[in-house]
Amino acid sequence: MPNFYNVEIDNALFLGTAQYPSPAILIEAIRHSQVQIVTASLRREAGGSGAGQHFWDMIKGLGIRVLPNTASCYSVKEAVTTAHMAREVFDTTWIKLEVIGNSDTLQPDIFGLVEAARILCEDGFEVFPYTTEDLVLADKLLQVGCEVLMPWGSPIGSGRGLNNPYGIRTLRAHFPDVPLIIDAGIGLPSQAAQAMELGCDAVLLNTAVAKSGDPVTMAKAFSDAVSAGRAAFLSTPIEMSDMAQPSTPVIGKAFLS
Amino acid sequence: MRIVLNGQNCDVKSTTLDQILIECNYINSAIATALNDTIVHKQARVGTVLNEGDRLEVVAPIGGG
What we know:
By secondary structure, chain A is of the alpha/beta class. Chain A is globular. In chain A, helix 3 packs across helix 4. Chain A has nine helices and ten strands. The mean pLDDT of chain A is 96. In chain A, the strands form three sheets. A five-stranded parallel beta sheet of chain A has the order 5-4-3-10-9. In chain A, strands 6-7-8 form a three-stranded parallel beta sheet. Chain B is mostly beta strands. Chain B has a five-stranded mixed beta sheet, with no helix packed on it. The N and C termini of chain B lie far apart (38 Å).
């Protein structure tokens, strides 16, 4: 079973909680897919709204673990402050660390990411860094105290799947014992299965479920896909070859004209 | 006193953060606060005095990816 900062889970799907047609559909998607970890965020709230408390009560009522994020933070200070605010509100040392470097691709500012990760690890956080598939960057993140890596599949919300399977394979090969979570860019269950077949430990997604025509069924489809992909990886898939190799024995075939 | 609350000008009578939050109708507990870009933890709100022009951010949980 995947293990993240000494927390073992049965379901390798992490699900985001934004953009659903309604809170009821979000709850049903979580229940139907049996996910055990969901992400959440913090935003400004107007006095008297109570919306944040209502949302938080709803998630707490599910009895599942929450991974708060620092989404939309563009500087180290902003991300670190947001992480501290999240720790206070969500009462967890887990933080999905996002330090964004480009508003078009929403790809990480890799220099700011390492610095923010260093600060937060020293502050006692258990950091899940939203990173690229860059091997050297991954090593830097591990050096500053991260024990999990969250490489992107492709830009957030793009649905493009894995832009660089080679990079993910390289990460898996170099860090066989570090939990890898593909975060962002997944659009289809087959893409999630591919990530798991490459040896990733989990997949985190939001838009692909929330914006689908039927989020409840799609969440279950993704849950099934990551499970199938994991089973395939553990079963050691065959090597790919360029030429055909007959599966039916050639020897013993009748000679007929 | 005029402060900037979540990016909007706001006139308040109270001077400490805990009282300002009550005055502005933040009565639920699931909020976090930052004053002039620095977090003010829940237990420190009572003794935190705001000044004219201070920037106060009040955030709460929301769905996220």
